[in-house]
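Dear colleague,

Following up on Tuesday's group meeting, I ran the structure prediction for the two-component complex that the binding team flagged. I've pasted the input sequences exactly as they went in, so you can double-check that nothing got truncated or mislabelled along the way. The structure tokens for the whole assembly follow below. Feel free to forward this to whoever is handling the docking comparison.

Inputs:
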Amino acid sequence: MPTPTHPSRPRVAMGHPPLAGRRRLSPTASAVMFVLGASATAGFARAQAVPQTIQGVPEQVTPTYLETGLPTFTIAPGTPTNASTGTGSGSGSGGAGTGESQALGTMLSQSWGDAAANNAQAIGVSASAIAAACVLESGCQNVAASGGGTVSGAFQMTNATYNADLAAALASDPSLSSDITQGLAGKMDPATEALAAAQDLKNAAQSLQAANIPDPTVLDVRGYYNFGASYGSAVAQASDDQSMASILQGTSPATLAANGITATTTVGQWRQGIVNKIGTTAYTSVLAG
Amino acid sequence: MNKLKMTMASLLLVAATGNAQAEYLKAVKPLDGYACMDLNLTEAQLRDNSVTVPILTGPSSDAPWGGNASAIVIARAPLHVVNGYAEILKLDGQPGWIAANKLKPYASVSNPNAHCTPSMMSNGRPGFG
């Protein structure tokens, strides 16, 4: 069980292991493959079939040179028949009108996903932001505590952080208490834990707003959620080429390692790891409009 | 020749579309007259959201609260201490004051070669380069 940098959440492993058994293409070969692929795609787009109307039998080819072994044959002209006119109807939709993110899709595929999204939105946090937190923390799996720690749930919070954040959320909207699982048991009810996690994201966003970041994104607040309030704004305002060890300067090597961070991991690489996991959701606003 | 042109075109296409890592934030220029300093807290305290170091708007205990300090602080260099409070630059660009005994020289416990340069960032705000 990795030791979390922040007591509320351990890290889930970032990145993917190398793909075994796959040969890596050289850059030039990759480039050529890319161009061929692009050309093929473009060609396909230009070669879309257009319906044609045939008047009578198509013109027949009279071979001058007969192929060896192919018997002579003739086509008897007949009366063409029209294919029946097809009928049909259809309807389609473009997904959720709010531009449903991939992370949100992952969370909503869980039985508790809708309730979690609603709880987050009730305190002003976007559904995509809370979905990103569960994808990054646990893959939206309700993980039990292990290794003697208290970090658990889909949002991987400690008991202390969960209690403090949940109390703050309920203080801002007491009516929410009727829809949640009471006590620490609520931490293993993802919809209830989502309310506390959303409060943590809201706290993070508000602290960054105080640092003159008017519309904090999921990527901006990740440092706060992952490493705690003291590091939140420092990570958000660190240069890509800085090392994470320089910004998380009070964190031991063992704790960094447990979070998948080496002495040479840069802030930019850490950010890219987040983007690789949740895509453009990383750039969405934490606070709901 | 055709092969060369093909390869060049391919490389250009890859360069245009295959950017492996997007640039998010970078340091534009150092902030003269400032240095990074650490909060004088333990690792456990830094991880505890309930432990905060207040920034005041003036060098006095009764000055209004101006936010909470981050683990790394941009302090005046050389340190400017008035009435036991050190002058800092908040990340919103405004000046602030922190109890001087809550600060210590910048160092990373996990990387002795780590450095920190207070900088103006590409988003127009102070940060760490």
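Chain B touches chain A through 55 residues (CB under 8 Å).

Cheers,
M.
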